Protein: MFS transporter
Organism: Pseudomonas koreensis
Amino acid sequence: MNSVASHRSSLWFLAITLLSFLAASTAPTPLYHLYQDQLHFSAAMLTLIFAVYAFSLLAALLTVGSLSDHLGRKPVIFAAVLLNSLAMLLFIYADSVAWLISARVLQGFATGMATAVLSATLLDTDRQQGPLINSVAPLLGMALGGLGCGLLAEFAPAPLQLTYWLLLALFVLQGVYVWRLPESVSRQGGALASLRPTLHVPVQARSMLWRVLPLNTATWALGGFYASLAPSLVRTATGSTSNLIGGATVAALTVTGALMIFMMRNRPAAQALRLGASLLPVGLILILLGVHGASLPLFFFGTLVAGCGFGSGFLGAVRSLVPLALPHERAGLMSAYYVLSYLAFCLPALLAGYLARNFGLLATTYGYGTVLIVLAVAALLLSLRPQAGRVCSAS
């Protein structure tokens, strides 16, 4: 019974910690317009502040993503929690664009380190529930961070500090508790060599990684747009100035994604991929129609449909890849997967911010959405090919 209780508490701790990191990552989203009003920066600078987080996260995945395979899981989790605590302090005292960028850089590196090690530790702890938690927790975390911070910004005092104080307290508690976890991998040599920037993709997983890439790119590019420019888009298209809108847009996308993951958890990976590739373009078309007609209800309905596609595609990708890695390959494989995911998360959004300055946010949104629709349809056609279907079904 003690062993069962310990196993359950470890799972809960890992899930909540992963959720916390992703919640912190979207906490600034509903605050961006407040930062803009206070610090007077453009939409292009806004996407730069957003993008440096993702680039720093990528740097962590490329360098320390496999470190826990060599040093053990607990020390790396603790280091990530410590770095994110420092990032929260930077946010609390941020009074310039430079401070915001510094906070996002530190937060990105901490989140990249945490994403890889927590994902691998969840798989070590429970091969059945681990993939499900790895898929659901990030989306729920993004939703909680965006919506929770939006609520605090709208109704609580100190909108630019309170959320970060609460997150800081949570990370301090997690830093203390992490040492109670059982260590799931043995220490082995090669830690310094593993810091060389590289993608540790097991040979047997490479083909599948390429197969899920088009849909994965489309879903994460949509997530990046929502985390950076969607609040500004809603304000431009509808005139709404509520602090809740920024968080609600992210929450609508990610909560439906998480619910879809839960509903599809026992379905084959190939079915999840096909459903994601079918729903995502439908949702994107509805979103674009909502923007064109300045209809907030249609925009959010399209977001819900796209969120279902996001969740299905995310689950299908993770469940297709996870069985292909050995225990000491898992952190490396998840790092590679998240490198590709976060490149799709930040680069298109950064480009959109630049284009919005030259062509306007509405025109940029139409072009951005069209490209994602093409990618999703291509992914659907690829998933219907007999060879792809057999490979995915085997997973």
Summary: The two ends are 33 Å apart (CA to CA). The chain has one domain: 2-180+201-394.
